[in-house]
Amino acid sequence: MSKKTLIILTPAFPINESDTSWVPAQQLLVKELIRQFPELNIVVLSFIYPYEEKEYHWYGAKVFAFDGIHKRKLKRISLWYLAWKNLKEIKKTHDVVGILSFWCSECAFVGEWFAYWHKLKHYSWICGQDARKTNKYVKWVRPKAEELIAISDFLVDEFQKNHGVRPAHLIPIAIDTKMFPGLPQSRDVDIIGAGSFSFQKNYDQFVSIIAELKKKFPSIKAIHCGSGEDKENIIRLVEKFDLSQNLTLLGVIPHQEVLKWMQRSKILLHPSSYEGFGLVYLEALYAGAHAIGFTKAMNHEIKNWHIVKTEQEMVEKCSEILQTDVRPERVLVYSIDETAKAFMKLLDQE
User: Fold this and answer.
1) What values do phi and psi take at 10, rounded to 5?
2) pLDDT band (50, 70, 90) for residue 192
3) pTM score, two decimals?
4) In this structure, is residue 329 part of a structural domain?
5) What is the pLDDT of residue 2?
6) SS3 per residue for the chain
7) Rounded-to-integer distance, Cα 23 and Cα 279, Å
8) Domains: count for the chain
9) Residue 1 — very low, low, confident or very high, per pLDDT cuts 50/70/90?
10) 112 falls in which pLDDT band (50, 70, 90)?
11) Same domain as 198, residue 94
């Protein structure tokens, strides 16, 4: 048998080490586990992305990609079979210490039942949409409370409300402080947005808020990092509100570049109506910006993170901050080294 192995099941994983836009919070965890625990072997099975079947290495972890995007409807069973087959091969040749599934969804469905049949530990990391009532996989996974790890207090309550099981563990997502350059004292960007233009992220509100703020701050400067399905609508709204000189859409850029822009910004504006615990909040706070959003992730208050209820309140809070001469300060909420240790502590329990 080789050294102890942790198997990670995920819907998506970077295709190479420069691919930083996919599942950034999960990337950080895997990298930190590799760094802190070199005695641990990590094998990743990625169900959907990359969009090709391949085997490769990522910072020392072995990755099996199954190209599940092209395995739909009845072909979905072939995806589960492929994952199960690979799990069996890994189990034969490795001393498997446990299985960790990102999201209590499709990956957890395969992981839970494989772990059951082979008497292995299995944990699901609940990260957001999987806590919603619409997640039909939960009834197939049939998880026990002690097998569930939520990233926020909000998701602990949400999962219990919608699925009748209260996750026993809370391990938040976190940032890697080593990724951040020195903190500048001057900020030339008023507002930054970072995230995909998916319909549920409500970036149409982001544009309308900038338009409203422009009435009071004619030279306001805002940027957005990301792209997605609602992109064309967002571009139309920028033109409609005559914001071409005020709002720059940068598109998809490397994660390290996003962090640099955050360090130049005064406010992160995140209009998503449903967030398990957005990594962008933690990044913005450590970059020295204020953060404004609709969803309260943790029961306790977090410095410089402002929770509002309406779009108008968002406008008012932005206006208040932009009129205040506040010195930037780092706010460290959760660090990835502690998150990695918390996972290993769970895996090490008998």
Assistant:
1) -145, 150
2) very high
3) 0.93
4) no
5) 62
6) CCCEEEEEEEEECCCCCCCCCCCHHHHHHHHHHHHHCCCCEEEEEEEEECCCEEEEEECCEEEEEECHHHCCHHHHHHHHHHHHHHHHHHHHHCEEEEEEEECCCHHHHHHHHHHHHHCCCEEEEECCHHHCCCCCCHHHHCCCHHHEEECCHHHHHHHHHHHCCCCCEECCCCECHHHCCCCCCCCCEEEEEECCCCHHHCHHHHHHHHHHHHHHCCCCCEEEECCCCCHHHHHHHHHHCCCCCCEEEEECCCHHHHHHHHHCEEEEEECCCCCCCCHHHHHHHHCCCEEEECCCCCCCCCCCEEECCCHHHHHHHHHHHHCCCCCCCCCCCCEHHHHHHHHHHHHHCC
7) 10
8) 2
9) very low
10) very high
11) no
Average pLDDT in the chain: 94
What CA–CA distance (Å, rounded) separates 133 from 148?
16
Task: Tell me the residue range of the domain where 343 lies.
Answer: 4-174+336-348
Q: Is residue 328 part of a domain?
A: no
Query: What tens digit of pLDDT does each residue of 113-152 get?
Result: 999 999 999 999 999 999 999 999 999 999 999 999 999 9
